[in-house]
Specification:
Mean pLDDT: 82
Order of helices and strands: HHHHHEEHHHH
Helix content: 55-70%
Strand order of the largest sheet: 1-2
Low-confidence stretches: 1-5, 22-33
Number of strands: 2
Number of helices: 9
Shape: elongated
Structural class: mainly alpha
Distance between the termini: 95 Å
């Protein structure tokens, strides 16, 4: 029985590719790009997208800050502050997506347009911040601080900014700080964010028009070169 038994040939070693196939079959599928979260930074995205995102973040921070002298009176607890917070969240959400895809739609600009309302409301509030008839102030909180002697009765915006930037005068600095607290620090921040949104909109329009003009000039010169 042991005669002429054929010697078994050694098994061939599997190649690297063949060995890798079973492992690849059980490997988890990569996450689709469309389902991944938006990146915090996309180097290919237009810089205007980041500017609009920044303005939305500034507005959101302002809505979380006090809208009056009470520290617990956050801006979003008021009707105007809730509207401003809704606009701020819409701007963050839409422009975060624009950064992810490096493209924007008309809906993105809709939120920037809505930021015009917090800007107008903030401007109206600032115009009436020092307005008063006798002892009755248009802003009651500012009037209360004036009656307590924490804010001068004859102040205006010029006096406020002069005191705010008078870093060598602690008394003036405290008076400016008291006015910010009485008026509502969050109102200032929301107003700044809304202003940034509209300014960035104007710069985007002008830069886009300039870019379109340059493209048109390049196309005209290219067509002229072809005729030659």
């Amino acid at each position: 029985m042991t005669e002429e038994l054929q010697e078994l040939e050694p098994l061939e070693e599997p190649t690297n590719a063949a060995a890798a196939e079973p492992a690849m079959a059980h490997a988890p599928a990569p996450i689709a790009a469309a389902g991944a979260p938006a990146p915090a930074y996309n180097p290919a995205a237009d810089k205007q997208y980041y500017r609009f995102l920044l303005s939305g973040v500034v507005m959101l921070i302002g809505c979380l800050m006090p809208f009056g002298p009470e520290w617990e009176m956050a801006g979003y607890k008021t009707l105007g502050g809730a509207f401003a917070m809704w606009v701020a969240i819409g701007m963050i959400w839409s422009w975060w997506g624009a950064i992810s895809t490096n493209a924007f739609r008309g809906a993105n600009l809709k939120w920037v347009g809505l930021a015009l309302f917090p800007l107008i409301f903030g401007l109206v509030n600032m115009m009436g911040a020092f307005a008063h008839e006798g002892d009755v102030y248009m802003n009651p909180a500012v009037g209360d601080f004036v009656k307590m002697g924490r804010i001068p009765a004859d102040w205006g915006w010029g006096d406020f900014f002069a005191a705010f930037f008078d870093f060598k005068n602690p008394v003036a600095q405290n008076q400016a700080g008291d006015f910010v607290r009485a008026f509502g620090a969050g109102k200032f921040v929301v107003f700044i964010g809304a202003v940034l949104a509209e300014v960035f909109m104007l710069t985007a329009i002008f830069s886009g028009a300039k870019h379109a003009k340059a493209q048109k000039a390049a196309a005209v010169s290219k067509a002229a070169a072809r005729r030659r």
